[in-house]
Write a structure and sequence with these properties.
Layout (H helix, E strand, L loop, with lengths): L1 E6 L14 H4 L2 E5 L4 H7 L4 E4 L6 H11 L5 E4 L4 E6 L2 E4 L3 H14 L5 E6 L10 E3 L6 E4 L1 H4 L6 H6 L5 H11 L5 E9 L14 H14 L4 E9 L2 E9 L1 H6 L13
Parallel strand pairs: 1-2, 1-4, 2-3, 7-10
Antiparallel strand pairs: 4-9, 5-6, 5-10, 7-9, 8-10, 11-12
Length: 263
Amino acid sequence: MNIYIPTRGREDKQKAIYALPPEIQKIAYLMCDSDRLDLLRSHNPDVNIEDIGLSKNIAQKRQAVLQHAGGQKFLMFDDKTTFKKRVEGKLSKMETAEEWHKMMAEVEEKLEEYAWVGISPQAGNNRVETYGKEIARSYTAFGINPKLLGEIRFDGLYQKYNVPLYEDFYVLLKMFTSGLKNFVIFDYAFEHKHGGQGGNSIVRNYETQLESVQALMKEFPQFVTLIEKEGWETMPVRPEPKIAWKQAFESYNPTAGSVLDFF
């Protein structure tokens, strides 16, 4: 199973791939837009880099990664992401190839049953003491089985509403309302600090965030509401979706003409 790391605008600041043990770097690929390829290669001559065409946002980029996978399972995470493992209830940095092989084998095994297998975020990891759970919020770091995901697209919300964000939550909600569960593993955790140049910051601001949440509400009105949270330096207050994940899954009714007929 390969690792795919979408990137843009951080050509000289590649954190995620260099945090991997050398053996794992061999199966990790920076997924780059055509117009930034030469620049990325000039700063990172010794890592794997794949040209995935041109994309305007993370929704298009993740869809390009999905298509590039060619039906094979893969693990995808953002280019600033680092990982930890849980040992006796505490998180410690993952450093060895053996630790990485173990985590990836567990993700790959779960992908036999689930289209999406996430790694938990570090924030809130201690609230779940079990190995993992189904039908859970997941983002930034996750494995995908394209064959189980079917026709669901990361750029579906962008195609319909021309919004650049929340493509991950769109995919999860499409899965749940179609009767597909995900699984999130809590014996591992990712850390990803927001802000800084590149990545989603290229298109993310209060307006694009709000428009993306509103589009998600239009698509799934029964399960998404708009809230505001404390942000970071570039966006002190940010609009965010509050999502009823389990209710979305429970709405699935294969005998009805539409999943929304349940209501």
